[in-house]
Amino acid sequence: MTEEQLGHFYEASLTAGTILAGFIGTFLMFRIQREANYHRQPVLDFNPCADRARARDVYIGLSHFSSSFLLIIIAALGSMTFGVCWPLLALAQWGPAQRGPAPIVAGLVASLIVVAAYFVDELVHYRILSTRLANDVSEWKKEWAIVVGGVLLAAVAFGVTYCALKTGA
Questions:
Q1: Do the bridges between strand 54-59 and strand 40-45 make them parallel or antiparallel, or are there none, so unpaired?
Q2: Is there a single domain that holds both residue 109 and residue 126?
Q3: Claim to verify: residue 80 and residue 153 sit in the same structural domain
Q4: What was the pLDDT predicted at 60?
Q5: What is the DSSP letter of 95?
Q6: DSSP per-residue string spanning 65-87
Q7: Residue 144 half-sphere exposure, CB side, CA atoms within 13 Å?
Q8: Which domain holds residue 155?
Q9: Does pTM surpass 0.85?
Q10: Are residues 75 and 151 in the same domain?
Q11: Residue 61 shares a structural domain with residue 88
């Protein structure tokens, strides 16, 4: 790669890394908020002796550090390291970060795989990947047309776009 191509690569990987980190951050914030709500929740205290109701926190204590929570934290660290920090350091011409595109690509691909594992873990945790899924699918009526139509439309769009880009049209 030329120096100019490498610079464009670092810029593109920084863009990809920040998009991935933002996506992961959204899921991480959802998880933190959910676990915080399982730890404590605000309620109104309707004490008849008091002159007015007031809010207070009630300890629930049902939050826990699940396996999917660990996966999304690992994915966040990976995407921030390889998709944000590494390209920024390379653009700033810090020697150890300028080893080429391989560590950045490998780190971002690994982060994507961990995010995919997070989704599978959530599907297993909520028993969506089970016989319940087969039972739910059997209840689909008009929705089948939407699912089949959406998948077919995506396949056609992929084919048309691929062919157009391949032929240079």
A1: antiparallel
A2: yes
A3: no
A4: 77
A5: G
A6: --HHHHHHHHHHHHHHIIIIIHH
A7: 6
A8: 142-169
A9: no
A10: no
A11: yes
Question: CA–CA separation, 158 vs 151, rounded Å?
Answer: 10
d(CA 23, CA 7): 24
Here the tokens at position 100 are 């080429």
The backbone torsions φ and ψ at residue 61, rounded to the nearest 5 degrees and listed phi first, read 75, 30
What one-character-per-residue DSSP string does 104-161 give? HHHHHHHHHHHHHHHHHHHHHHTT-SSHHHHHHHHT-STHHHHHHHHHHHHHHHHHHH
Residues 6+ apart with CB under 8 A from 79: 17, 20, 21, 24, 107, 108, 111
Of 2-11, 114-123, 130-139, the poorest mean pLDDT is in: 130-139
156 and 129 assigned to the same domain: no
Same domain, 149 and 131: no
140-169 per-position pLDDT tens digit: 888 889 999 999 999 999 999 999 988 875
pLDDT (tens digit per residue) in 2-50: 888 988 999 999 999 999 999 999 989 988 888 887 777 777 666 666 6
Nearest to 61 by CA among 28, 32, 36, 29: 36
Same domain for 127 and 160? no
How many structural domains is the chain composed of? 2
Query: Based on the domain organization, do 98 and 153 belong to the same domain?
Result: no
DSSP assigned state of 99: S
